[in-house]
Amino acid sequence: KELQLQRDAQFLCSDPRMDTELVDRLVLQLNRIYPQILIDKEAHKFRNLSIPTKVRLAELLKHLHWKGEEACHEFYRGLHIHAEDVYSSLPTRVRQREMADPKQTKNVAVLPERFVLNDRGPVFFLSCFSFVVGIAMLYYCGGESHRVMEKCTGPFLHCSAARLSKGAKDVFITCAEVGKENK
């Protein structure tokens, strides 16, 4: 982690997401949870607002590198907790992901598009499904107006069957033909 922190230091100091508030939260976490890593006096120095944030961050990273492996590990842990987007975009993290599975990084952008059936969303699907169920209910449960409904819905069912899969087409055409035979 010490070597990793050295490699990531330039990225962290130049990343605009590493603002005063985030650096302050990281210093406070290291000071409160791990006082052996950052004592109060050191934490006060790294929280001094009269010094620019980038300078304080650079000094903090040098200090953590000097403190050793555990300090570096806890800094990364705090960064992961407080700014996961920054943590996941660190050069060493990106490199680790690429080395772990080079094919996966190329397929990540393709997978979400592969499973999109249409761009209209679930409300469109539910409204179409409800409409078809309503027509089917009118067709089969029409009661006395069954013959009137056959005349109105029979051609609709016959025409809409052409848009369904082959197996479903046979079912709807058969139902429409059975209704016509009973006349």
From TrEMBL:
Q: Where is it found, in Gene Ontology cellular component terms?
A: mitochondrion
Database matches in InterPro entries? CARD19, DEATH-like_dom_sf
Name the domain of life this protein comes from.
Eukaryota
Q: Which PANTHER family is this protein grouped with?
A: CASPASE RECRUITMENT DOMAIN-CONTAINING PROTEIN 19
Name of the protein this chain belongs to: Caspase recruitment domain-containing protein 19-like
